[in-house]
TrEMBL record:
Residues 1-17 form the signal peptide. Keywords: Copper, Glycoprotein, Melanin biosynthesis, Membrane, Metal-binding, Monooxygenase, Oxidoreductase, Signal, Transmembrane, Transmembrane helix. This is Tyrosinase. Residues 201-218, 382-393 form the Tyrosinase copper-binding domain. Gene3D superfamilies: Di-copper center containing domain from catechol oxidase. Its EC number is 1.14.18.1. GO terms for cellular component: melanosome membrane. It comes from Callorhinchus milii. InterPro entries: Di-copper_centre_dom_sf, Tyrosinase/Hemocyanin, Tyrosinase_Cu-bd. It is found in: Melanosome membrane. It is an enzyme of class 1 (oxidoreductase). The gene is tyr. Its cofactor is Cu(2+). Pfam families: Tyrosinase. Residues 476-495 are annotated as: Disordered.
Length: 495
């Protein structure tokens, strides 16, 4: 079946998508400007057509927490200002580094149509839908991104922009690299590094960052496959005793003689990983450059059971959802009674008290896979990452619907660097603030099948469409329980 699908897919036009290729020449870096032309009218940011305009980036100066006591040493500080101080600012319905794309949830030539995309349970996809998903992943893994390149040197190594160091990358690996780049240690020269830094984990932006990451990844797969309706499925791992998607029909079974490899009957066994050798990069003072580093490793269930006794249960998820505070001081992996810290997996899922010697909920899955998934920097190499994080995002969505928070409960300052409300998310260009993804998925044009099925949720579809969730996020008077929203049924370890 894989072959047939690949033949079919090769007929589709592999279209365009972290650095926009159009912004990597020395000229752009020296001017610190990333405002490429929109092909529709040839003007920067599609300005002539009212799609957007080139504007100064205004970086938030809210103070960071004490976790990163340095400054002026990491290209990700004040993102994206080390590289660019002017980028496209897109109008209402538009998005993208040159405003060529529609905002999430908008479609059509002028991005005026609205549509909600539904993310489904992978085990409930039809055979054809499931094969299509797998084929799209393969296509993304083998298609060079037309729109983006990766940085293979720091700004200093690029002589402050006069000597650009960028490289082509496949659409799939672009996202593996971004996940590495956002979480990597700060290189301080020679083999010195600062490790207590991560712009997407162990702090409040964990959920909004991964929400944006998945939407962008989904969007690039859509463009690559020419299928505007594609959604990434999720894997509901609650209460399981084994990895039910670790079969050749889904994401690859176990190799018959080498337990931490995938079965040759799965084409994922032929994939090569990138960005897995953090210690080498740190010792050599260089960035991951996308060079293949061997096959995907996975050995589900052969992890250290004293740190992660079991896969997360429905009760663990339900407990995390009962926590009323999104985040608590000190806004990192030591936060007690923090929904974010509990769902991320640094707190006891029965009490909400931080315990960094255990890996629960989200972290538990990574540890359980006992391979590529288990180190933060390279975890997105294993496509299980996608299924897992989509399910984690659906739990975040349940929490938002249950507690209906005001946007200002998201901490504005004193969080670990990169996590304040208005910080621009590393390493995305176009630029997005953390807070822009701290809102209901319906505002972003997508939903989950199990959260929309009639009977499982009283306030549904039409009602939510009439009263967009943002209303609830902005006005405390509309704070109201949706009711009935209870659903049946180190990484990733303290550093
Ligand atoms: C899109 O917008 C342009 C410029 O406003 C207009 O000329 C065109 O008719 C619109 N197309 C559609 C399909 O709405
Ligand atoms: C890069 O910029 C820094 C800070 O402005 C400066 O100290 C350094 O000399 C510059 N390096 C090069 C190669 O231009
Ligand atoms: C996507 O779905 C919409 C609405 O169901 C449909 O009109 C459109 O043709 C679909 N697009 C593709 C490429 O299948
Ligand atoms: C796999 O689990 C063993 C303990 O069972 C542990 O020592 C090893 O570090 C784990 N490997 C990975 C890649 O997580
Ligand atoms: C979290 O709770 C534990 C147990 O009560 C306590 O020892 C610890 O100091 C608390 N941590 C924070 C950051 O408040
Ligand atoms: C944290 O987890 C470890 C390992 O399971 C356990 O031994 C320890 O008692 C826990 N600490 C607290 C404060 O609960």
């Amino acid at each position: 079946m894989g072959f047939l699908l690949l033949c079919f897919l090769s007929l589709l036009k592999p279209s365009s998508q972290q650095f926009p290729r159009a912004c990597t020449p020395a000229d752009n870096l020296m001017r610190k400007e990333c405002c490429p032309a929109w092909s529709g009218d040839g003007s920067p940011c599609g300005e002539l057509s009212g799609r957007g305009s080139c504007q100064d980036v205004s970086v938030s100066d809210a103070p960071n927490g004490p976790q990163f006591p340095l400054s002026g040493v990491d290209d990700r500080e004040g993102w994206p200002s080390v590289f660019y101080t002017r980028t496209c600012h897109c109008a209402e319905n538009f998005m993208g580094f040159n405003c060529a794309d529609c905002r999430f949830g908008r479609f059509g030539i002028n991005c005026t149509a609205r549509r909600t995309s539904i993310r489904k349970n992978i085990l409930e996809l039809s055979g054809a839908e499931k094969d299509k998903f797998l084929a799209y992943l393969n296509l993304a893994k083998s298609t060079i991104s037309q729109d983006y390149q990766i940085a293979v040197g720091t700004y200093t190594q690029m002589s402050n922009g006069s000597n650009p160091m960028f490289r082509d990358i496949s659409v799939y690996d672009l996202f593996v690299w971004m996940h590495y780049y956002v979480s990597r240690d700060t290189l301080l020269g020679a083999s010195r590094v600062w490790k207590d830094i991560d712009f997407a984990h162990e702090a409040p932006a964990f959920l909004p960052w991964h929400r944006a990451f998945l939407l962008l990844w989904e969007n690039e797969i859509r463009k690559t496959a020419g299928d505007e309706n594609f959604t990434i499925p999720y894997w509901d791992w609650r209460d399981l005793e084994s990895c039910e998607v670790c079969t050749d029909e889904y994401l690859g079974g176990r190799h018959s003689t080498i337990p931490n490899l995938l079965s040759p009957a799965s084409f994922f066994s032929y994939w090569q990983v990138i960005c897995t050798r953090s210690e080498d990069y740190n010792n050599g003072n260089f960035l991951c450059d996308g060079t293949p580093e061997g096959p995907i490793l996975r050995n589900p269930g052969h992890h250290d059971r004293t740190k992660t006794p079991n896969l997360p249960t429905s009760a663990d998820v339900e407990f995390s959802l009962s926590l009323t505070e999104y985040e608590t001081a000190p806004f990192d992996k030591f936060a007690n009674f923090s929904f974010r810290n509990t769902l991320e997996g640094f707190a006891n899922p029965n009490t909400g008290i931080s315990n960094t010697s255990q890996s629960s909920l989200h972290n538990a899955l990574h540890i359980y896979m006992n391979g590529s998934m288990s180190q933060v920097s390279g975890s997105a190499n294993d496509p299980i990452f996608l299924l897992h994080h989509v399910f984690v995002d659906s739990i975040f969505e349940q929490w938002l619907r249950r507690h209906r928070p005001l946007q200002d409960i998201y901490p504005a300052m004193n969080t670990p660097i990169g996590h304040n409300r208005d910080y621009y998310m590393v390493p995305f260009i176009p630029i997005y603030r953390n807070i822009e993804f701290f809102l209901s998925s319906q505002e972003l044009g997508y939903d989950y099948d199990y959260l929309t099925e009639p009977g499982k949720m009283h306030l549904q579809g039409e009602t939510l469409a009439k009263f967009p969730y943002s209303t609830c996020l902005c006005s405390s008077s509309s704070k109201k329980e949706p009711g009935g929203l209870s659903i049946g049924r180190s990484l990733f370890r303290g550093r």
